[in-house]
Amino acid sequence: MNAPASDFLPHTPPMLLIRTLLDVTADSVLCETTLNDAVLPFLDPAGALPSWFLIEMMAQSIGVWAGWHDHARNIAVQSGLLLGCRQFECAQPSLPLGSRLRITARKLVEDNGTGSFEAHVFLCDANAETPVASATLTTHQTSWEHLESLLVR
After folding, report:
1. Counting CB atoms within 10 angstroms of each CB, which of 24, 27, 78, 134 has the fewest?
2. How many distinct structural domains can be found in the chain?
3. By C-alpha distance, which of 52, 84, 59 is closest to 9?
4. What is the pLDDT of residue 64?
């Protein structure tokens, strides 16, 4: 597929962290990104991206999945919220600039816009994909109008 993730996310830099949609199905998504200058605001004092930040990349990959399906139904990309994260595991404390990452997410259950997804992040080099992080994320897709009413309170 190799489509720009920005076509399916409402994010703008510096919060646009996912670069490419590689594959999408009814229940899964595969995205890719490279840690470049876009992540500079989020680096730790040593100049690396803290691994807990991968939760946001997993959530954005789920957002790409939802946005792609919105686009396929000929509706505008809706807003989404990360409601929770369970079972976050990470193999290293941080990732250096230049790291190429592949993010997968698979829908476990979805009901009325709320979904649970199993997500994984892999560090890619020329020879292999090494597992870096995994989590189960709960998300909710809502209309922009409903989101605004929640934020005004």
Report:
1. 27
2. 1
3. 59
4. 97
